[in-house]
Amino acid sequence: MQVPLYQAKAEFFRMLGHPVRIRVLELLQGGPVPVRDLLSEIEIEPSSLSQQLAVLRRSGIVVSIREGSTVSYALAGGDVAELLRAARRILTELLAGQNELLAELRQADPPLSVPQGGGTGRG
Question: What is the DSSP code string of 56-76?
Answer without folding.
Answer: HHHHTSEEEEEETTEEEEEES
